[in-house]
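Bug #2210: token dump truncated for HupE / UreJ protein?
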Amino acid sequence: MTMLPRLLVRLLTIASMVASLLGAAAAHEVRPAYLDIREETPGVFSVLLKTPMQGDARLALSAAFSGDLVKLTPVMSRPTGDAMLQTWQIRALEPLEGQKVSIDGLQNTMTDALVRIEFLDGYVWLEKLTPGKPGATIPATQSRWTVAKTYVASGIEHILFGFDHLLFVASLMLIVRDWRMLVKTVTAFTVAHSITLTFATLGWAALSSAPVEVIIAFSIVLVGAEIVRMERGETSLTITWPWVVAFGFGLLHGFGFAGALADLGLPRGDIPLALFSFNVGVELGQLIFIAAILAVVAAARQFFTIPRQAVIASAYGIGTIAAFWGVERLDAMLRAAG
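Reproduced locally. Full output below:
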């Protein structure tokens, strides 16, 4: 049976540890600014601005519109630990459609901002603002192509910056040495999280995000431990049938993806399209990650050799970082419950 190159295994150890270190502080979370505007009654909108914080300091960002509006309530601020939430209400003296919405101060940062506006008739407009493009004009309608493009991009971004999801995939690649089984395992993971992402988004199934995030972290610990067992010549369900374990944990990861999609919201008129596009984006991001590792292997195969002990060292690194995430998330969940 054809085996994956030994160098692939060794380089994956580096990729896993790098992903661990990059995600040690942020874990699963990407921290852009977020502006959510919802029409409550004709012409009256509730506004929520979420600004990332580092300690007690937050980015100096504010929302601005090109048209006339009246602020109906004062701005209420509430820190959440890693972000500042500001809420208030406005009355638009002229339609928001056609106005330019901007995030003042964004051009002086290195972060992005997601803007979501929901109107009474169900029309939802989404736009990602950047330091180079801190403002955009609100269109009267949004084409299906724009919806698809927006949600595909959001899915790709979510998986590529979801370090725990990537670390789980990298861990599976360390266990599965045969390329046929690797395809089967990754496919099982994909099918599983697609199922729960769809069910959770459509309201057919629900799990609280906090325990899901805890279990996701400890699922990585389990796979890390299985890597060590395999290197010692032992066997287990994970080692023998990795696609079964990938499917089981993929169901949980799908609920994690659903939480991200819930933050984005879904356009009422295009829910199937938005859901499908987000899922496609997640899969594309996952394939990009796998392809990047394989490309590094192909480029580096002739230049260096990594000691075999690096596999076990990587497994311990994976387990340590994932355990830290799990304990941190469990502590946050218990604090919130208490």
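Output looks complete on our side. The radius of gyration is 22 Å. Marking as cannot-reproduce; reopen if the truncation happens again.
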